[in-house]
Design brief:
The complex is a heterodimer. In chain A, strands 6-7-8-5-11-10-9 form a seven-stranded antiparallel beta sheet, with helices on both faces. A six-stranded mixed beta sheet of chain A has the order 13-14-15-12-4-16. Chain A has a six-stranded antiparallel β-barrel with strand order 18-21-20-19-22-23. Chain A is globular. Chain A contains 35 helices and 23 strands. Chain A is an alpha+beta fold. Chain B is an alpha+beta fold. Chain B is about 25% helix and about 30% strand. A five-stranded mixed beta sheet of chain B has the order 1-4-5-3-2. The two termini of chain B are about 35 Å apart. Classes of the chains: A alpha+beta, B alpha+beta. Chain B: One of its GO terms (biological process) is rRNA processing. Chain B: It holds the Pfam family Rpp20. Chain B: One of its GO terms (cellular component) is nucleolar ribonuclease P complex. Chain B: One of its GO terms (molecular function) is nucleic acid binding.
Chain lengths: ~950, ~150
């Protein structure tokens, strides 16, 4: 009997009473067993038995026991035995067997699949039973919610929305995005990842020839206010001049340009970086040293950055929201308006505390208001901190300001077409009429408007100086919404744009009322709702004409910030330049839809990654493994990749061990840097002995010595690996990366870079031996680099090889079968000695099995062997982003390599082939030749 | 529109700054203290029969592009533009076109001067302060290649 049959039989027998055995002599039982199911002799029970056979043939019915025998027995005993058997039989007939479906009783040709759902399809006689069964099976009635109509009513909808954004914040464009995008919950926000329609190439085209729009409102803004010197003194602890312009850079400080800087923990440079931030100073007010500074940071930096800022500014006094107006510092005065809590509008404050458990009435009343700004924060959380010693005030303006990014050469055309400078109007209680009373302010507005009109004459966004800031007040863009989607095109004019191109907007034009929190709140509160606006439109005499006069509430202060495109390297200069549009909260959708109607493409998180990849810029947090946020990201990424890997059936997974890939999901940067340092140290000692230096064969030889490196690393203090950001060193290294012939040589001579020799190398390594450096690799021939592809050193023969690239010999998977491995254990010594290609380090193999049981097959168990020497080519680093680049038409990758390794490689390469490396994908054995570019 | 993928179209902006380096006037400031960043030359709207020549794209490809415009594209005239180092190549292309057409094509060359903008970023931003912009001029050539009107 097959296993399936046995199982089926067991299932059928589950509910059956066990067969009755009348105690008899063993011989008797044996003989009776033979006659099971034979009904020839059982004439008394024939009819019954026939019935049994048809339905209950499985019942072991000892027919033979019923037969009158010559065996002497009392009539009483015989009767009891029969009685018990009859009882069993009756019991068996009343109970259903096998599957409990009623239609099991139907012959096969009458069964229909739909019967299991709809009992009315059953014959009448079975319907009752089926109904009874169905009702018993259904555990609970689904709680009947409100009708769709009720659910879709405005108030109820808002309630539901407010409930859903308690955990993850929604941007103002959330609903718009949720209809069109794959949404992801990231960093405490719901963000659009990528559109549901196909748009990869068209988005790229938009970025390179028209305009791509993104909602970047999830970026966190932190506002600092205080005396200029004190602010600068505090902030200087976080940055270093060696890594480029700081907060004090002259142009940024004047407020004319946006600056960007890498922030470190106080006084820790070059260790412990936090991440990149951009910042914007408010232009100076006349005769006041009080300054205002906005620091824009990625949401994953904020938890680290905010405490650090509080420490350096000595702002430890949290100002509770209700007490806010009382604590305004008195020194800055004139420039500083009395600042009510920038935190949130009063209605949103009441919402957040309400619990679902509360009675409906309590909860519903306040939360029917739309949440503006940060809905997840409890109203008692302090958002402002002030210092008693130096008067600096830090406030957290997260979600207070909407930030849109327009990328592409035509983004200024889109802006110019969407927005119009505000027209002035009669005084009333709103902010703009008040503003209009002031003559100087109106002059300023006029000048800003002029500059804005000049933008129209510019052909490409990249022509403007990078980081230019322009403040402006515009009319409500909903008023000029075109009836159809149009494509904004430039109209080039020659006159007067020269000054704008050379200097950017003049200093005083960078002022905007957006800096004033009172104005922001006023604008947010007084925004006309869409409904009202549409109603006003519908009452126009000529349908589709513009509303006039413009409603008083429709004046919005904005800031336009130019974003530089590709700045490094020689190709594709200023690709991906664009504008950032900063708005007061609540106005997000009012500007979003008009922008969309100007023919822009919309991008999500994926597109911003591609943007920075094409720009050749590091993307946060992917490319910052030395920052806490970057480290966290790597962990998440590893978990995600491992999860995806495990979802494949085992036979369809890549065996990364066989591909010689140690770390397909997570890159052990620390180990890499340590190993390279060790290699160089050993190499140095070796060089003392004999002056012979060879390419990487030497490194290979060293590796053998370095294999028992565990003891060395344990004794060393755990120094964290950092990414090299010192501009001077980077420039030096960049010069060394280029081949010394042709174009590169000329550039080098003009730069006056000192040649790469042993002394220079030693000097460089003493300073940055443990660092990583961020490089761009462009493939010379075919191939598409992937995430975590390995960057390797070519051997001398590889450099001679033209076409294709070398192949990695396949590795052997020692962990594949622990059982087989144990059997082979005795033969192992023999195995090791054979010239297996780049054989696995022996030291780690034996300790593998325990941990490898937990890991899926095809991955290395945790104590990784030497990462550099694992393959036939020595490893330098890993790729963090790689793809086919539409801008260069080849595969391009951005990755991090060890400085020590890179320098050693460059030093050993012939001068004309300098900077050639190999690239190998994790699931491939083919090395591709790539050129390394280090652009400063 | 101009698509950087095919640099033949928007050629002039991309290569020209690199090659005009030698022609730039002597800099009065210490070169170590400033980083030179060249901005793109100003772009002008481009008609279909404008060809901007660069030094990066293969010469034959650019020539073939022009031929295609004249023969298959149905244009009576095309305009070949070259800036800086690419002037030579622009002339070369125009002459090749004329030679291959057995005298059917005529040339009309114009020269002009293009103003280019450089940004000078101080390496030590806090001390030296002011980043500078400077303008310099570079030569450009615009060759009209056309079939003369039959009279």
């Amino acid at each position: 009997m097959s296993a399936a049959k046995v199982k089926m039989r067991e299932k059928k027998m589950r509910n059956q009473p066990s067969s009755v055995q009348y105690s008899a002599s063993p011989r008797h039982v044996e003989s009776s067993a033979k006659h099971t199911h034979t009904h020839t002799h059982a004439h008394q029970f024939r009819t019954l038995q026939m019935q049994c056979r048809s339905d209950y043939g499985h019942l072991k019915f000892r027919a033979s026991a019923l037969l009158p025998r010559s065996h002497p027995s009392s009539a009483g005993a015989f009767a009891t035995a029969r009685a018990s058997e009859v009882r069993t039989m009756l019991k068996a007939t009343t109970k259903t067997t096998g599957s409990c479906h009623v239609f099991g009783a139907l012959p096969k040709h009458m069964r229909r699949r739909a019967m299991s759902h709809n009992t009315k399809r059953l014959p009448c006689r079975l319907r009752d039973v089926a109904n009874r069964m169905a009702s018993s099976k259904k555990k609970k009635e689904e709680s009947k919610g409100k009708s769709r109509k009720a659910r879709r009513q405005h108030g109820n909808l808002l309630l539901e929305f407010n409930r859903r954004q308690r955990k993850n914040k929604w941007l103002e464009t959330h609903i718009w995005h949720a209809k069109r995008f794959h949404m992801v919950k990231k960093w405490g926000y719901c963000l659009g990842d990528r559109p549901t329609y196909k748009c990869y190439r068209s988005s790229y085209r938009a970025m390179s020839s028209h305009c791509l729009l993104q909602d970047l409102s999830y970026y966190c803004c932190i506002e600092l206010q205080g005396e200029e010197e004190k602010l600068l003194a505090s902030l200087s602890q976080l940055t270093s001049k060696e890594a480029g312009p700081t907060f004090a850079a002259a142009l940024s400080l004047s407020g004319q340009r946006q600056g960007s800087v890498d922030v470190y923990r106080a006084g820790q440079y070059p260790m412990q970086p936090l991440g990149p931030v951009t910042f914007l100073w408010r232009p100076r007010a006349q005769g006041s040293t009080h300054r205002q500074l906005w620091i824009w940071a990625h949401p994953t930096i904020k938890p680290d950055l905010l405490p650090e800022l509080q420490t350096v500014c000595q702002c430890c006094e949290a100002v509770l929201p209700p007490a806010a107006p009382a604590v305004i510092p008195t020194e800055g005065v004139s420039a500083l308006e009395p600042e009510p809590k920038p935190e949130k509008t009063p209605e949103s404050k009441q919402i957040t505390g309400t619990k679902r458990k509360q009675t409906f009435k309590d909860a519903s009343e306040p939360s029917e208001k739309k949440i503006l700004g940060d809905g997840t924060r409890s109203p008692t959380t302090p958002v402002t901190w002030k210092s008693s010693s130096n008067g600096i005030v830090i406030s957290d303006l997260t979600m207070e300001i909407v930030r849109y990014r327009l990328i592409g050469p035509q983004s200024h055309s889109v802006l110019v077409e969407t927005m119009e400078a505000a027209t002035d109007c009669d005084p009333s209680c709103l902010w703009w009429p008040e503003h209009c009373k002031n003559e100087s302010k109106m002059n300023l507005h006029q000048q800003q408007a002029d500059v804005f009109h000049l933008l129209k004459g510019v052909y490409s966004t990249g022509e403007l100086p990078s980081g230019t800031v322009l403040g402006l007040t515009v009319d409500d863009p909903r008023l000029t919404l075109p009836t159809k989607k149009v494509k904004a095109l430039p109209c080039v004019k020659q006159e007067k744009r020269r000054e704008l191109m050379l200097r950017g907007a003049p200093a005083h034009c960078c002022q905007s009322s957006l800096w004033e929190s009172s104005v922001r709140d006023n604008v947010t509160v007084n925004k006309i709702s869409n409904k009202l606006l549409n109603h006003m439109r519908s009452e126009l005499l000529v349908p589709g004409s513009r509303l006039s006069p413009t409603p008083l509430q429709g004046r919005v202060p904005i800031l336009l910030v130019h974003q530089p495109g590709k700045q490094v390297g020689h190709e594709m200069t200023s690709w991906g330049a664009g504008w950032d549009l900063l708005l007061p909260k609540g106005w997000g959708m009012a500007f979003w839809v008009p922008l969309v109607y100007r023919g822009v493409r919309i991008g999500g998180l994926t597109m911003s990654l591609k943007h920075s990849q094409n720009k050749g810029a590091a993307h946060f947090p992917h490319d910052y493994p030395d920052c806490p946020a970057g480290a966290r990201f790597q962990e998440e990424q590893e978990a995600q990749l491992l999860y995806e890997f495990k979802r494949y059936p085992p036979a369809k997974r890549n065996n990364y061990i066989k591909h010689g890939c140690l770390a397909p999901f997570c890159c052990p940067w620390q180990q890499l840097a340590e190993e390279w340092e060790l290699i160089l140290r050993e190499g140095g000692e070796e060089r003392e002995e004999d002056r012979l230096t060879q390419t990487s064969t030497k490194a290979d030889a060293v590796m053998e010595v370095a294999t028992p490196r565990e003891d060395v690393t344990v004794t060393k203090p755990p120094s964290r690996v950092t990414v090299l950001r010192n501009k001077k060193s980077l420039r030096l290294l960049s010069g060394w990366c280029r081949p010394t012939t042709s174009k590169g040589q000329r550039a080098r001579r003009s730069c006056g870079v000192l040649p790469l020799d042993r002394a220079a190398m030693a000097l460089f390594l003493s300073a940055h031996g443990m660092s990583l450096v961020w490089v761009r690799l462009s493939l010379l021939s075919k191939g598409k680099p992937e995430l975590h592809a390995m960057v390797c050193v070519p051997t001398a023969e590889d450099l001679m090889l033209c076409g294709g690239g070398p192949q990695e010999p396949p590795h052997r998977d020692h962990f594949k079968s622990p059982f087989r491995r144990q059997k082979k254990g005795s033969k192992k010594e023999g195995k090791e000695s054979d010239p297996a290609p780049a054989s696995e380090p022996n030291s780690t193999a034996p300790e593998g099995p325990k941990s490898s049981l937990a890991l899926p097959m095809g991955l290395w168990p945790d104590p990784l062997p030497s990462v550099t020497a694992h393959c036939s080519r020595v490893m330098l680093g890993w790729v963090t982003q790689g793809d086919f680049s539409l801008s260069s038409g080849r595969g391009e990758a951005l990755g991090l390599v060890s400085v020590a390794g890179l320098l050693n490689t460059l030093f050993n390469q012939p001068a004309e082939r300098r900077g050639t490396l190999l690239l190998r994908n994790p699931a491939s054995l083919h090395y591709r030749v790539a050129k390394v570019n280090l652009e400063v | 529109m101009t698509e950087p993928r095919s640099p033949g179209m928007s050629s002039m902006p991309q290569t020209a700054p690199v090659h005009t380096e030698s022609t730039s006037p002597a800099v009065e400031m210490d070169p170590v203290e400033y980083t030179l960043r060249k901005r793109l030359p100003r772009k002008l709207p481009k008609r279909r029969n404008d060809v901007y020549v660069n030094m990066k794209t293969d010469f034959r490809a650019q020539l073939a592009r022009c031929q295609k415009l004249l023969e298959g594209g149905g244009h009576r005239e095309i305009c070949v533009h070259g800036l800086g180092l690419a002037i030579n190549r622009a002339i070369n292309i125009a002459l090749q076109l004329q030679a291959s057409s057995q005298g059917a094509l005529q040339l009309a060359a114009n020269t002009s001067t293009v103003e280019l903008v450089d940004d000078l970023e101080p390496e030590d931003p806090d001390e030296a302060g002011e980043p500078m912009t400077r303008t310099r001029n570079n030569s450009a050539i615009h060759i009209k290649v056309f079939y003369p009107d039959p009279q």
